[in-house]
Amino acid sequence: MPPKFLLDTFPLSIEKWWWEQACQQWPGISEDKLLNLIRQEIVKQSDRFNKFRNFDCDAYGKRDLSIIAYGNFYFSRSWTAMNFAIGEAIHLRGWNPPKNGPIRILDLGSGTGASGLSCLHTIRKSGLSNQIQLEAIDYSGKSLAFLRKLHLSQKDLWPDTQITTKRLDLKFPLDEIKRKKYDLILLGFSLNELLNEEENEQECFKQVLFSLPERLKSNGLAVITEPAQRGICHLLHKKCAEIIPDFKDLFIHSPYFNGKSCPLSQTNSKFFSHEVRKILPLSTVEKINRPLNLEVREVKFGLSMIGYLQPKILGKSHEICRIVSPLKKRKGTVSFVVINGDSNELTYELQRRNLYKEDLVDLMDLERGDILKINLAEDSSQEFRHRIQNLNQIQPIFMPRVRQDESSKN
């Protein structure tokens, strides 16, 4: 079951650039001491992201150590999540650039540019030749300075692109941003940072989301990635669903089908909508992680897209589906849970006795987030459970994978 779309690996020149920033910032210490310094900061950042939810700008975005540690450890994963998302927008959801003129992109909460620069690179790798103008917004002037420096140093990765930056906190109204229209608006792991227990957390979150439609061109998409946490993903999909009635001809394009919202945010399902993608960690990431034992071989993220384009019809609603669970291998069966084009949660099951060994290997290569067309001889659902007789009934529609060949590393 070959992948339906191959993504380029994270550029090694950027990995090298981030490590050089660390060496230049602390030139007098050994590599081991530098790694330990970064590790201590990564532990703090991991706690900040996962436990304390504290994104105070004095502790996050003003310190060189914080930014450089993030760049060497987390930057590539945020980049890869947006790489998957933009790949889906271009190759599955029908996003097209303007026929004439530049592609205009707004990156809200850009940080040091992991999502925005990933988008530039993915667009260029897809063969689109329009000039690209990226406008990056973030509250950290120091992060924006790193973004500009990185963009300038790696011009060969995104030829004929321009960036402008503006320092602005997303917690405040976005009226300061000129009311331009954009082909793409990116929010890469930034909305969740508006959630603060001491404030009306959902109001800030909703305020930013509701500001997006009026800034989108008719062909534009807002592409949002968020951490794969149940509460954050449910909130994202609920608020995206609330936007639609307030804007004529606005549609939800992802993660599901036919303009329908995520049903998992409205039910008591054991699953929530997010992707889990296998990646090969960078050598720098592995060095930093050696004593930390954090998860570095997967990138997990929630995803949503909204825009004025008519949602692309991918197939019959009862056949098209997206995997929302891990694959479960029991003694006699392999099963997985999907959301189909009718927004129903279904379980598909294959009996292992009907599978060749290589078929089982191919089946277990499926990932949470893959989009499939499943051809059943007849609609024989019973309590939303379907039996698939053989692997030939599964047709990948969007099964993206990161290239593993050596040539893609340059």
Measured on Cα atoms, how large is the radius of gyration? 21 Å
CATH class of the largest domain: Alpha Beta
**What's the CATH H-level homologous superfamily of the largest domain?**
Vaccinia Virus protein VP39
Please give the count of helices. 10
Q: State the separation between the terminal residues, measured CA to CA.
A: 27 Å
The number of distinct β-strands equals 17
CATH topology assignment of the largest domain: Rossmann fold
Q: Element order, helices and strands?
A: EHHHHEHEHEEHEHEEHEEEEEHEEEE
In total, the number of domains comes to 2
Q: What's the average pLDDT? A: 91
Percentage of residues in DSSP E strands: 15-25%
CATH architecture of the largest domain: 3-Layer(aba) Sandwich
DSSP helix fraction: 25-40%
Uncertain stretches: 406-410
Task: Profile the largest sheet.
Answer: 8 strands, mixed
Q: Could you please describe the fold and organization of this structure?
A:
It is a single chain. The protein folds into 2 domains: 5-307, Rossmann fold (3-Layer(aba) Sandwich); 320-402, OB fold (Dihydrolipoamide Acetyltransferase, E2P) (Beta Barrel), CATH 2.40.50. The chain starts with a strand and ends in an 8-residue tail after the last strand. The protein has helices at 12-25, 31-52, 64-73, 75-91, 114-125, 141-153, 201-211, 230-243, 283-289, 357-364, and strands at 5-7, 103-108, 132-138, 161-167, 182-188, 216-227, 251-254, 275-278, 298-307, 320-323, 328-329, 333-340, 345-351, 371-374, 385-388, 394-398, 400-402. With 410 residues, the chain is of the alpha/beta class. It has 10 helices and 17 strands. It is globular, with a radius of gyration of 21 Å. α1 (12-25) packs antiparallel against α3, α2 crosses α3 (64-73) and α7 (201-211) packs across α8 (230-243). The model is unreliable at 406-410 (pLDDT under 50). The strands form 3 sheets. Strands 2, 3, 4, 5, 6, 7, 8 and 9 form an 8-stranded mixed β-sheet that branches. Strands 10, 11, 12, 13, 14, 15 and 16 form a 7-stranded mixed β-sheet that branches. A two-stranded parallel ribbon has the order 1-17.
